[in-house]
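Same chain as my last thread, 80 residues:
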Amino acid sequence: MQAASRKQIDDTQLLKQQLMDELSTWIAEHHLKQAEAAEILMVSRPRVSDVVNKKTAKFTIDTLVEMLSRIGKPVKLSIG
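reply #2:
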């Protein structure tokens, strides 16, 4: 049971990291300052800093998916 729980936590962390990577790449590709990205993403500048610094514990998957949606990057989930 403990191993299954650890796997679920690891899978969640990996998913959050992938979503944050997409956001960070988008910010870098558009040469945006954190304040500019925050305005577009409709979050505070410190939240953008948390994304760029991969602070996964501070975000839910839903929040990251919403942020990606705001920049025209819909998320598709595949199971299996």
